User: Fold this.
Amino acid sequence: MNIRDRVGQVFGRGGDNGSAQDAPDALSLIHGDHEEVSALFERALGDGARASERRSLATRICDALTLHARMEEALFYPALRRAGGQDEKDSVLEAAEEHGVVKDLIAKIQATRAGDETLKAKLTVLKELVQHHVREEESTIFSEARRTLGDQLDELGAEMQAFKSSGGRTRGGRSTGSTRKASTRKTAARKTGARKTTAPKTAARKTATTRKTTRPAAAKKRTAPTRKRKR
Assistant:
């Protein structure tokens, strides 16, 4: 049994249609995602697009980009870093930073309300960011991947296809997004606990400081000499 069959069994798809056995290699899969999103941008930003249609297409674009980024960050980029050297590491780090910028804008688009006149402008900027990322990825990173990963690209493509088909869930059944959210909640809880423990100490310091500053003033009042009235 080859790696594609094993991946298909792990994700419960076996030899069904759309299984890992029919998956393209990693670079073809990534390029296909790029082409799909590019077509969605063209429709969403076309002059004939109605507001409701643009809103629907914006949702599809954001969902597609989010899943694509999670797939790359979970599988493709780590594989490239493991197989490559410093150049590959630098390329992956830069690509991950570009992902972060795209995600920030996606969050703003998702937060816009129906009829928001800035939606088209936001989609235009998002398209430009994505186009820049695609040019860098399909030139520099693709070349590095062909050189360092070689035959592994077929196996990696099967894993990436299975990841996409599962909606971005890891083998443990949990999505990478939910894992990050849980980590964020834990960090917030730790910060809240730290604030609670430091609050009494801060209050005690303020009380002690207040007492020290008020005592000398009281002493001065008690020791102040009284003037005798002249007759």
In short: Residues 176-223 form one domain. DSSP finds seven helices and no strands in the chain. Confidence is low (pLDDT under 50) at residues 1-20, 177-188, 216-221.
